[in-house]
Design a protein that fits this description.
Strand 2 and strand 3 form a beta hairpin. It is built from 15 helices and twelve strands. By secondary structure, it is α+β, with helices and mostly antiparallel strands. It starts with a helix and ends with a helix. It has a seven-stranded antiparallel sheet with strand order 6-7-8-9-12-10-11.
Length: about 425
């Protein structure tokens, strides 16, 4: 490989760096060591980078790489990954940031140029910035610049979720699981440099105020794109937390479907915010088929989370209600609403969980068959805190993660 031939012999192999080093160096050193030690993790990560034989290839990696030749620009990527399988070769540069530091587009452009000179196929960036998928970058690179080399982006929180998931894989060895659990513990440490999304953009309070006093705004109002981008980051960050705290694989859903392009989703969410003053998100727990819907209504300053519970297949109306009361014994009854729906129009019954426990027959009176759908609903409504860019996110996550914990305790997840 040309990139190996030109590589400085002093470029080190990945080693676990001291925590006193820059956070991004420590994080990257841990992750690159995991890629060397866990072929299954390496295979999935490199597949996301565009290389399909990462699990079985001859793999090599280096950190803080330099190329001493005077014919090569003095650019120094944080990492270099190399793969060889048979006659095929593949390589990628890695640039990492941590904390509040953001990826600089001009730096990625420099690495893409360097990659073209050294036959490196891909440039990978990692930071705390979220992207909908690895090919849709959270920073701008001109289309003509991107054509030179493949560019992929990952958020540290997404990679942390990947490590979490492999640590729960029953097919890996006990030693590998121990290594992954130790790494996950470091990634979840508050001092690791992985920063989760914790507040909406600065325009948030103004948009909430406008939605409630009749002033309104349109899809072209300055700042609305920043609000929607912030919401997209929160949705993805919340997905990572749901996956971690529930020990489950969680998919992020959108009304346009899984194959919708990023621009279409951005336009859809921007129009919905302008027309109805709403933001929404959907999550699916793949193993249990449980779905969570999240709705934030700016006009009412209200956040609602609803959960669709699959009814048991072998029970009637009474037995289903008894089952639901038993499964939700650890839930907060006064804060949880229950909606059961039967076949036919208008056959929907509502009650608080507290009322259901006191008089369960009231909800299913007149029905013998099990309901076709069960939904649990919980809300938070605090006008002052909703307007705060930070408190809005804090309350939203407490609402969703609190209910998820109760769902886990009830055996739903």
């Amino acid at each position: 490989m040309k990139c190996i031939d030109e590589l400085s012999p002093t470029s080190p192999k990945p080693t676990l760096m001291d925590k006193n080093k820059k956070p991004e160096r420590t994080l990257l050193s841990v992750f690159m060591r995991l890629l060397e030690m866990v072929p299954e993790l390496r295979g999935e990560f490199l597949s996301e980078c565009g290389y399909g034989a990462g699990k079985t290839c001859a793999y090599g990696s280096f950190m803080e790489v330099t190329f001493p030749s005077s014919k090569i620009p003095d650019h120094r990527p944080d990492g270099l990954l190399t793969c060889k399988r048979g006659s095929s070769e593949w390589a990628a540069f890695v640039e990492a940031k941590a904390g509040k530091s953001e990826i600089r587009p001009e730096q990625i452009q420099d690495y893409a140029h360097l990659a073209s000179l050294l036959d490196v196929d891909c440039v990978v960036s990692i930071s705390n910035e979220f992207a909908r998928n690895p090919v849709e970058l959270p920073y701008h690179i001109a289309a003509n610049k991107r054509r030179k080399r493949d560019i992929r982006h990952f958020a540290w929180a997404e990679l942390r979720t990947m490590v979490d998931r492999f640590a729960r894989d029953p097919d890996i060895s006990d030693l590998t699981r121990s290594v992954l659990n130790d790494a996950a513990g470091f990634f979840w440490d508050q001092n690791s440099g992985i920063v989760t999304f914790d507040q909406m953009p600065k325009e948030w309070g103004g948009f909430v105020q406008s939605s409630g006093v009749g002033v309104g705004f349109s899809a072209k109002t300055p700042g609305i794109t920043e609000i929607v981008h912030g919401w997209h980051q929160e949705r993805r960050d919340l997905r990572a937390k749901l996956a971690h705290y529930s020990s489950s694989v969680v998919d992020l859903r959108h009304e346009l479907g899984a194959r919708a392009e990023f621009d279409a989703i951005l336009s859809c969410d921007r129009n919905r915010l302008a027309e109805t003053y709403e933001l929404s998100a959907g999550y699916m727990f793949k193993n249990s088929k449980l779905s969570i819907e999240l709705l934030c209504e700016l006009q009412d300053r209200k956040t609602t989370v609803s959960v669709d519970i699959p009814p048991p297949a072998d029970k009637g109306a009474k037995a289903t209600t008894t089952w639901l009361i038993k499964q939700t014994s650890e839930f907060e009854p006064a804060k949880t609403d229950v909606v059961m729906s039967w076949k036919g129009k208008g056959n929907e019954r509502h009650a608080t969980l507290e009322a259901l426990r006191l008089d369960p027959e009231k909800l299913f009176d007149g029905f013998r068959e099990a309901p076709k759908a069960i939904r649990l609903i919980r809300q938070v409504h605090d006008v002052r805190r909703f307007r705060s860019a930070k408190n809005f996110v804090t309350d939203l996550e407490a609402l969703v993660l609190g209910l998820t914990h109760e769902l886990d305790e009830g055996g739903f997840i």
